[in-house]
Amino acid sequence: MDRRFIRNLGALSREECALLAQKRVLVAGCGGLGGHLIELLTRVGVGAILAADADVFEESNFNRQLLSGTSVLGKSKAQTARARALDINPAVDFTAVEAYLDERSTPGLLPGCDAVLDGLDSIPARKMLARACTDAGIPLIYGAIRGWAAQAAVSMPGDGLLELLYPADAALTDKSVLSFTPALCAAMQVSLCVRLLLGRPVETGVVHYVDLLGEEYERIEFR
Asked: Which residues of 128-163 are buried (b: 16+ CB within 10 A; e: fewer)?
């Protein structure tokens, strides 16, 4: 077994580690959430990762985006994510997609994927991604952050979770994010994703909400 993943044993079996190495996931966005998602997926041993983002890094990213820094100012977020992942695990099959996800580009990225992880920061983009996942029959691991709070959920094809969460008139009014909030949200998302990929029990249609400032945790069912 690859020594990079030897400390996974115990929490995961050898068979589960081998199964993760055969899985393929799409990470939508390489920013605040996406950078942490890619880091955690690579370190847990997921074998193939597609990461899509058309943006480049700027200084306003530094407070929350794991992959950002002065050495990559103006550089592609997707290509920086690829370099980071390959530095951790040269065997990972990593595809960097320098494109915005929309109704035209997204469907072509989904074939062969076992799950999609939401690292987006726009309600319309999230809804578009959920529709594409439903059309492709692929689970979406939803995540969202704001200030001190994070929430995550597994949305199965056709369950309409994103439509229930975000009515037609929903809009983002507060875009503040602290450094630790995307790290928390990504950990929640990847833990849900790993359980799903391994066939372990995982609740769907349930939003897990954490408020770090108020020290509150809520489990919200959407049935």
From this structure: bbbbbbbebebbbbbbbbbebbbbbbbbbeebebbe
pLDDT in tens, 66-122: 999 999 999 999 999 999 999 999 999 999 999 999 999 999 999 999 999 999 988
Structure tokens at 210: 């954490």
H-type helices in 137-203, by residue range?
Answer: 161-165, 180-198
Which residue blocks in 76-174 are alpha helix, DSSP H?
77-88, 123-136, 161-165
Element (H, E) at 17: helix 14-20
| Cβ pair 70, 43 in contact under 8 A | no
pLDDT in tens, 20-77: 999 999 999 999 999 999 999 999 999 999 999 999 999 999 999 999 999 999 999 9
Strand, helix or coil at 95?
Answer: strand
Amino acid 147: pLDDT: 96
Q: Round to whole Å and give the CA distance between 58 and 129.
A: 25
Residue 94 is predicted with a pLDDT of 98
Burial class (CB in 10 A: 0-12, 13-18, 19+), 20: buried
